[in-house]
Amino acid sequence: MGTQTTIYMHLLNFYRTERDIEVFIDYYKTTFPTATIFPKLHMLQYHLTSWLRKWSVGLGMMGEQGAESLHKWFNRQKQTFASVADRVQQLSCIMKEHFIHVAPANISLEPPIKRRKITDPES
Which residues 6+ apart lie within 8 Å of 56 measured at CB? Predict the structure, then answer.
């Protein structure tokens, strides 16, 4: 059964698919150790099994439009944070922005910025 199907997934097929994904990811990382993880592979590795567990159907119910929209949003954020020189810090800023974008209530989870006390040099 492909991951794009909309047919109800039987529990045994789910476990087989989950195992097949793990085997494939291990093969990919072993065979291509310097290769990057592209977005669809990331979706396969980190999100497909939870989707299948929750909905019992493949990703056929979710169109390509959603993924393309997300891709466009991340590209815009990359431009927004282009001035951040350190790539890891840049990605961290993008992910924090995404965390707040997808669920605005998450902003309350960020610690408030502590303001420094300004001292009068004459006192």
Answer: 8, 9, 14
